[in-house]
Amino acid sequence: MMLDADGLRSRLIAAVPVPFDREGRIHAGAQASQVRAMAASPAGGVAVWAHTGRGLMLTIDQRAEVLTAWKSGLAPGQLVVAAAGSPPRERNPEVVMANSLAMARQAAELGADAILVHPPVAFRGLPTQDRLILEYHARVAEAGLPLILFYLYEAAGGISYGPTTLLQLLARPEVLGIKLATLDSVMTYQQVGALIRERAPEKLLITGEDRFLGYSLMCGAQAALIGMGAACVDLQHRMMRAYLDGAAAEFLELSRKVDDLAQNTFIAPMEGYIQRMLICLVHEGVIPSEAAHDPWGPKLPAGESDRIAACLTRIGRP
Question: Cα separation of 193 and 195, whole Å?
Fold first, then answer.
Protein backbone atom coordinates (compact mmCIF):
# COMPACT_ATOMS: atom_id res chain seq x y z
CA MET A 1 0.00 0.00 0.00
CA MET A 2 1.31 3.45 -0.92
CA LEU A 3 2.30 5.60 2.05
CA ASP A 4 -0.03 8.52 2.75
CA ALA A 5 0.18 11.48 5.11
CA ASP A 6 -1.60 9.65 7.91
CA GLY A 7 0.98 6.89 7.70
CA LEU A 8 3.73 9.42 8.40
CA ARG A 9 1.92 11.44 11.04
CA SER A 10 3.44 11.42 14.57
CA ARG A 11 6.49 9.45 13.45
CA LEU A 12 10.08 10.21 14.33
CA ILE A 13 12.15 9.50 11.22
CA ALA A 14 15.88 9.38 11.92
CA ALA A 15 18.16 10.73 9.19
CA VAL A 16 20.97 8.23 9.65
CA PRO A 17 24.70 8.64 8.98
CA VAL A 18 26.82 6.07 7.19
CA PRO A 19 29.65 4.60 9.29
CA PHE A 20 32.94 4.84 7.41
CA ASP A 21 36.38 3.62 8.40
CA ARG A 22 39.55 5.73 8.15
CA GLU A 23 40.03 4.71 4.51
CA GLY A 24 36.58 5.96 3.52
CA ARG A 25 35.01 2.52 3.17
CA ILE A 26 31.58 1.70 4.54
CA HIS A 27 32.07 -0.29 7.74
CA ALA A 28 29.66 -3.16 7.05
CA GLY A 29 29.67 -4.47 10.62
CA ALA A 30 28.88 -1.05 12.07
CA GLN A 31 26.17 -0.52 9.46
CA ALA A 32 24.52 -3.80 10.45
CA SER A 33 24.78 -2.94 14.15
CA GLN A 34 23.20 0.48 13.54
CA VAL A 35 20.30 -1.17 11.71
CA ARG A 36 19.72 -3.65 14.55
CA ALA A 37 19.71 -0.87 17.13
CA MET A 38 17.20 1.20 15.17
CA ALA A 39 14.99 -1.81 14.52
CA ALA A 40 14.74 -2.30 18.29
CA SER A 41 13.97 1.37 18.90
CA PRO A 42 10.64 3.26 18.83
CA ALA A 43 11.66 5.18 15.70
CA GLY A 44 9.05 5.32 12.98
CA GLY A 45 11.72 4.76 10.35
CA VAL A 46 14.86 6.17 8.83
CA ALA A 47 15.88 8.55 6.08
CA VAL A 48 18.82 7.43 3.97
CA TRP A 49 20.78 9.31 1.30
CA ALA A 50 19.94 12.59 3.05
CA HIS A 51 22.59 15.12 4.06
CA THR A 52 23.29 13.26 7.30
CA GLY A 53 23.93 10.13 5.24
CA ARG A 54 26.02 12.00 2.65
CA GLY A 55 23.62 10.76 0.00
CA LEU A 56 24.79 13.12 -2.73
CA MET A 57 28.37 11.97 -2.21
CA LEU A 58 27.79 8.22 -2.31
CA THR A 59 28.33 6.08 -5.40
CA ILE A 60 25.41 4.20 -6.90
CA ASP A 61 26.70 0.95 -5.38
CA GLN A 62 27.16 2.56 -1.95
CA ARG A 63 23.62 3.92 -2.07
CA ALA A 64 22.32 0.45 -2.87
CA GLU A 65 24.33 -1.09 -0.03
CA VAL A 66 22.99 1.41 2.49
CA LEU A 67 19.33 1.32 1.48
CA THR A 68 19.28 -2.47 1.18
CA ALA A 69 20.74 -2.86 4.66
CA TRP A 70 18.06 -0.64 6.18
CA LYS A 71 15.16 -2.02 4.15
CA SER A 72 15.99 -5.61 5.00
CA GLY A 73 16.83 -5.04 8.66
CA LEU A 74 14.18 -2.71 10.08
CA ALA A 75 11.21 -3.91 12.08
CA PRO A 76 7.81 -4.37 10.43
CA GLY A 77 6.07 -1.02 10.08
CA GLN A 78 9.23 1.07 10.17
CA LEU A 79 9.63 3.20 7.04
CA VAL A 80 12.57 3.88 4.75
CA VAL A 81 12.58 7.37 3.24
CA ALA A 82 15.26 7.91 0.60
CA ALA A 83 16.47 11.33 -0.47
CA ALA A 84 16.95 12.25 -4.12
CA GLY A 85 18.97 15.04 -5.62
CA SER A 86 22.06 15.84 -7.67
CA PRO A 87 25.74 16.23 -6.74
CA PRO A 88 26.23 19.74 -5.34
CA ARG A 89 28.70 20.91 -7.99
CA GLU A 90 26.34 20.20 -10.89
CA ARG A 91 24.80 23.40 -12.23
CA ASN A 92 23.19 22.37 -15.53
CA PRO A 93 19.42 22.31 -14.80
CA GLU A 94 18.68 19.42 -17.14
CA VAL A 95 21.50 17.31 -15.68
CA VAL A 96 20.36 18.17 -12.14
CA MET A 97 16.86 16.93 -12.94
CA ALA A 98 18.09 13.79 -14.69
CA ASN A 99 20.39 12.91 -11.79
CA SER A 100 17.64 13.45 -9.25
CA LEU A 101 15.14 11.33 -11.16
CA ALA A 102 17.71 8.55 -11.50
CA MET A 103 18.31 8.61 -7.75
CA ALA A 104 14.57 8.53 -7.05
CA ARG A 105 14.09 5.61 -9.44
CA GLN A 106 16.89 3.69 -7.75
CA ALA A 107 15.18 4.28 -4.41
CA ALA A 108 11.88 3.02 -5.78
CA GLU A 109 13.52 -0.10 -7.23
CA LEU A 110 15.14 -0.86 -3.86
CA GLY A 111 11.87 -0.58 -1.97
CA ALA A 112 11.88 2.90 -0.40
CA ASP A 113 8.55 4.10 0.94
CA ALA A 114 8.91 7.78 0.02
CA ILE A 115 11.32 10.33 -1.43
CA LEU A 116 12.74 13.31 0.43
CA VAL A 117 13.56 15.82 -2.31
CA HIS A 118 16.92 17.53 -1.82
CA PRO A 119 16.69 21.32 -2.29
CA PRO A 120 17.73 22.19 -5.88
CA VAL A 121 20.39 24.71 -4.86
CA ALA A 122 21.72 24.81 -8.43
CA PHE A 123 18.70 26.92 -9.39
CA ARG A 124 19.15 29.52 -6.66
CA GLY A 125 19.17 33.06 -8.03
CA LEU A 126 18.41 32.11 -11.63
CA PRO A 127 15.80 34.21 -13.46
CA THR A 128 13.82 31.02 -14.05
CA GLN A 129 14.25 29.72 -10.49
CA ASP A 130 10.57 29.21 -9.69
CA ARG A 131 9.78 27.44 -12.97
CA LEU A 132 12.80 25.17 -12.55
CA ILE A 133 11.84 24.31 -8.97
CA LEU A 134 8.39 23.20 -10.09
CA GLU A 135 9.77 21.21 -13.02
CA TYR A 136 12.39 19.60 -10.80
CA HIS A 137 9.80 18.23 -8.38
CA ALA A 138 7.59 17.07 -11.25
CA ARG A 139 10.54 15.11 -12.68
CA VAL A 140 11.35 13.46 -9.34
CA ALA A 141 7.68 12.50 -9.02
CA GLU A 142 8.04 10.39 -12.16
CA ALA A 143 9.67 7.72 -9.98
CA GLY A 144 6.19 6.96 -8.63
CA LEU A 145 6.78 7.36 -4.90
CA PRO A 146 5.20 9.83 -2.47
CA LEU A 147 7.28 12.97 -2.00
CA ILE A 148 8.38 14.95 1.04
CA LEU A 149 9.40 18.49 0.18
CA PHE A 150 12.49 19.93 1.86
CA TYR A 151 12.61 23.62 2.72
CA LEU A 152 16.14 24.50 3.78
CA TYR A 153 16.55 28.24 3.84
CA GLU A 154 19.41 29.87 1.99
CA ALA A 155 21.58 30.85 4.95
CA ALA A 156 21.66 27.15 5.88
CA GLY A 157 22.74 26.17 2.36
CA GLY A 158 19.36 25.53 0.80
CA ILE A 159 16.93 27.45 -1.36
CA SER A 160 13.95 29.51 -0.23
CA TYR A 161 10.64 28.74 -1.90
CA GLY A 162 8.35 31.78 -2.16
CA PRO A 163 4.76 31.39 -0.95
CA THR A 164 3.30 30.97 -4.45
CA THR A 165 5.83 28.32 -5.45
CA LEU A 166 5.51 26.53 -2.13
CA LEU A 167 1.73 26.35 -2.40
CA GLN A 168 1.99 25.01 -5.95
CA LEU A 169 4.34 22.28 -4.72
CA LEU A 170 2.08 21.42 -1.80
CA ALA A 171 -0.87 21.13 -4.17
CA ARG A 172 0.75 18.18 -5.96
CA PRO A 173 -1.18 14.99 -5.03
CA GLU A 174 1.93 12.90 -4.40
CA VAL A 175 3.32 15.39 -1.86
CA LEU A 176 2.75 14.22 1.73
CA GLY A 177 4.16 17.30 3.38
CA ILE A 178 7.29 19.33 3.89
CA LYS A 179 10.37 18.99 6.05
CA LEU A 180 11.15 22.45 7.36
CA ALA A 181 14.74 23.08 8.49
CA THR A 182 15.60 26.72 9.11
CA LEU A 183 18.46 26.14 11.60
CA ASP A 184 18.57 29.49 13.41
CA SER A 185 15.66 31.34 11.80
CA VAL A 186 12.70 30.74 14.09
CA MET A 187 10.75 33.45 12.26
CA THR A 188 11.07 31.60 8.96
CA TYR A 189 9.84 28.41 10.60
CA GLN A 190 6.86 30.23 12.11
CA GLN A 191 5.95 31.93 8.83
CA VAL A 192 6.16 28.83 6.65
CA GLY A 193 4.39 26.76 9.29
CA ALA A 194 1.55 29.28 9.42
CA LEU A 195 1.24 29.25 5.63
CA ILE A 196 0.87 25.47 5.62
CA ARG A 197 -1.70 25.48 8.42
CA GLU A 198 -3.79 28.15 6.70
CA ARG A 199 -3.47 27.22 3.03
CA ALA A 200 -2.56 23.51 2.92
CA PRO A 201 -3.78 21.95 6.20
CA GLU A 202 -4.03 18.48 4.66
CA LYS A 203 -0.24 18.39 4.22
CA LEU A 204 2.14 17.48 7.04
CA LEU A 205 4.51 19.97 8.60
CA ILE A 206 7.56 17.82 9.36
CA THR A 207 10.15 19.33 11.63
CA GLY A 208 13.81 19.17 10.71
CA GLU A 209 14.75 21.52 13.54
CA ASP A 210 17.25 19.68 15.72
CA ARG A 211 18.16 22.87 17.60
CA PHE A 212 14.58 23.68 18.64
CA LEU A 213 12.82 20.36 18.30
CA GLY A 214 10.41 20.80 21.19
CA TYR A 215 9.37 24.31 20.17
CA SER A 216 8.91 23.18 16.55
CA LEU A 217 6.28 20.72 17.75
CA MET A 218 4.57 23.57 19.59
CA CYS A 219 4.53 25.47 16.28
CA GLY A 220 2.51 22.72 14.63
CA ALA A 221 4.91 20.02 13.43
CA GLN A 222 3.13 16.68 13.11
CA ALA A 223 6.18 14.49 12.50
CA ALA A 224 9.96 14.78 12.70
CA LEU A 225 12.74 13.94 10.25
CA ILE A 226 16.02 14.82 11.92
CA GLY A 227 19.68 13.88 11.95
CA MET A 228 19.75 14.03 15.75
CA GLY A 229 17.35 11.09 15.74
CA ALA A 230 20.19 8.81 14.67
CA ALA A 231 21.20 8.59 18.35
CA CYS A 232 19.25 8.78 21.62
CA VAL A 233 16.17 8.03 19.55
CA ASP A 234 14.13 6.78 22.51
CA LEU A 235 14.65 10.08 24.36
CA GLN A 236 13.40 12.11 21.41
CA HIS A 237 10.52 9.74 20.79
CA ARG A 238 9.42 10.05 24.42
CA MET A 239 9.55 13.82 24.15
CA MET A 240 7.34 13.77 21.05
CA ARG A 241 4.88 11.39 22.72
CA ALA A 242 4.74 13.60 25.83
CA TYR A 243 3.84 16.61 23.70
CA LEU A 244 1.23 14.75 21.67
CA ASP A 245 -0.28 13.27 24.86
CA GLY A 246 -0.40 16.66 26.58
CA ALA A 247 1.97 15.57 29.36
CA ALA A 248 3.36 19.07 29.92
CA ALA A 249 5.74 18.42 32.83
CA GLU A 250 7.27 15.39 31.15
CA PHE A 251 7.56 17.26 27.86
CA LEU A 252 9.42 20.16 29.49
CA GLU A 253 11.86 17.86 31.28
CA LEU A 254 12.57 15.80 28.17
CA SER A 255 12.89 18.94 26.03
CA ARG A 256 15.64 20.16 28.34
CA LYS A 257 17.57 16.96 27.77
CA VAL A 258 17.00 16.97 24.01
CA ASP A 259 18.12 20.60 23.82
CA ASP A 260 21.30 19.69 25.72
CA LEU A 261 22.03 17.00 23.14
CA ALA A 262 21.39 19.41 20.27
CA GLN A 263 23.59 22.10 21.79
CA ASN A 264 26.47 19.64 21.92
CA THR A 265 26.10 18.13 18.46
CA PHE A 266 24.61 20.77 16.14
CA ILE A 267 27.27 23.44 16.66
CA ALA A 268 30.09 25.04 14.69
CA PRO A 269 31.61 23.71 12.59
CA MET A 270 28.08 22.73 11.62
CA GLU A 271 29.16 20.11 9.08
CA GLY A 272 30.76 18.31 11.99
CA TYR A 273 27.35 17.26 13.30
CA ILE A 274 27.49 14.11 11.17
CA GLN A 275 30.64 12.83 12.84
CA ARG A 276 29.28 13.96 16.23
CA MET A 277 26.24 11.74 15.72
CA LEU A 278 28.58 8.86 14.89
CA ILE A 279 30.48 9.63 18.11
CA CYS A 280 27.18 9.47 20.00
CA LEU A 281 26.60 6.02 18.51
CA VAL A 282 30.05 4.96 19.71
CA HIS A 283 29.29 6.08 23.26
CA GLU A 284 25.91 4.32 23.12
CA GLY A 285 27.73 1.12 22.19
CA VAL A 286 26.09 0.85 18.78
CA ILE A 287 29.17 1.14 16.55
CA PRO A 288 32.94 0.79 17.16
CA SER A 289 35.14 3.90 17.24
CA GLU A 290 36.92 2.87 14.03
CA ALA A 291 33.60 3.32 12.17
CA ALA A 292 32.96 6.89 13.39
CA HIS A 293 34.46 8.72 10.41
CA ASP A 294 32.88 11.16 7.97
CA PRO A 295 35.10 11.42 4.86
CA TRP A 296 33.62 14.80 3.87
CA GLY A 297 33.39 16.43 7.27
CA PRO A 298 35.68 18.97 8.94
CA LYS A 299 38.31 18.03 11.49
CA LEU A 300 36.71 18.37 14.90
CA PRO A 301 38.38 20.21 17.76
CA ALA A 302 40.19 18.20 20.41
CA GLY A 303 38.00 17.01 23.23
CA GLU A 304 34.80 16.64 21.21
CA SER A 305 34.32 12.99 22.15
CA ASP A 306 34.78 13.71 25.87
CA ARG A 307 32.37 16.66 25.73
CA ILE A 308 29.73 14.55 23.98
CA ALA A 309 30.23 11.74 26.51
CA ALA A 310 29.65 14.23 29.34
CA CYS A 311 26.45 15.43 27.67
CA LEU A 312 25.17 11.87 27.27
CA THR A 313 25.84 11.23 30.96
CA ARG A 314 23.92 14.38 31.96
CA ILE A 315 20.86 13.37 29.97
CA GLY A 316 20.90 9.83 31.34
CA ARG A 317 22.37 7.96 28.42
CA PRO A 318 24.87 5.07 28.90
Answer: 5
Sign of the alpha-carbon dihedral angle for 204, 210, 213, 219: negative
Across the range 15-26, mean pLDDT stands at 97
Give the Cβ contact number of residue 197 at 10 Å. Answer: 13
CA angle 263, 158, 128 (to 5 degrees): 165
- 61: buried, middle or exposed (CB in 10 Å: 19+, 13-18, 0-12)? exposed
pLDDT in tens, 171-191: 999 999 999 999 878 999 999
Q: Would you say residue 318 has pLDDT above 80?
A: no
Whether residue 157 is predicted with pLDDT greater than 90 in this model: the reply is no
Cis amide linkage into residue 87, ω under 30° from 0: no
Q: Strand (E) positions, the chain?
A: 12-15, 45-48, 79-84, 114-117, 147-152, 175-181, 204-207, 223-226
Residue pair 207/213 in contact (Cβ under 8 Å)? The answer is yes
Instruction: Give me the torsion for CA of 144, 147, 150, 151, rounded to 10°.
Output: 110
SS3 14: strand
Question: Which among 206, 66, 63, 187 has a CA at the least distance from the CA of 148?
Answer: 206
Q: Does pTM surpass 0.85?
A: yes
Query: What is the rounded average pLDDT of the residues 125-149?
Result: 97
